[in-house]
Amino acid sequence: MTTRPWLRPAITAVFYVLLVGFLGYYLIFQVPWGQLSRLAFTPVWLLGALVLALAFRYWQTFIWITVLRGLGARGVRMDAELTYVYAKSWMGRYIPGTAPWILGKIYFASQHGVSKTKLGVGSLLEAAIQIAVLLSTSSIMLFLDPRLNVPRYEWLRPAMIAVVVLCAVALIPRVFNWCMALAFRILRRPALARENYANARTILTATAQYVVGAFLSGGSLFFILKSLYPSLAFSDAFFVIASGNLAGAASMLVVIAPSGVGVREGIQFALLAVVMPVAIAAIAVIVTRLWGIAMDLLFFGAGRIALTISRRRAR
């Protein structure tokens, strides 16, 4: 088979060009910078938001590694190489479609000797668990909040129950493995061997880990809002965490928008307006989007620096 040494750097270059293009378009044309000029922050809360935001991203990487090891992938550990792979692939969410995020992990990690089949199953499973946990935990917390137990939101309560049930069913090992096998047949790939099926232990472990991740991500959002609106009560923390996680999960499901732009903001605004003035909620959704971009870039940059240091030490 003829090797094509130019193909790998070409794919990587296209990935970065698309990433910079869509991210630049959003920052230049979609952000109303004039509305942000009068904002004032309480720095102490931003520090908490920073710590939790970065902790969540590294925790995601750890969960991905845990899933791969649970599937039997060899030579997989949370080192600088695979952490940078995850950070780089996570930036792929800003390219329209969920595929760049998942395919990025498969493509870039396979260059380090990890089985593509294990990466395919593991990356899809990790993404499915993340979305399912964020949806189900946020639905449960919002369902229990008395502020939504009013006629205006009556339709939400049965919808939340349905979401939790669907997420639970989707993560049953037999159901998930059947869906994976079906996907392989549709894509005309070789049949998925049983050794690549996800077992109950792997799914339950990753699910429990993502429950922790849901509170890390949602907690970061709460501290950002606290820095913008100091009157926000700590008793509203669960509501804010649920709002952020629901919006985040929904944005992952909308594959046509880069990082769910518009969908995430719309859901967050509708829910945050329950616990803060409408004007502040409108500004908050813009700030939290910019904060998320900044944290993703910081995660990416930290991963790159750690990788450079690791390679220099190896040499």
UniProtKB/TrEMBL annotation:
Keyword Transmembrane: yes
Transmembrane segments: 7-28, 40-59, 124-144, 159-183, 203-225, 237-257, 269-287
UniProt KW keywords: Membrane, Transmembrane, Transmembrane helix
Protein name: Flippase-like domain-containing protein
Organism of derivation: Galbitalea soli
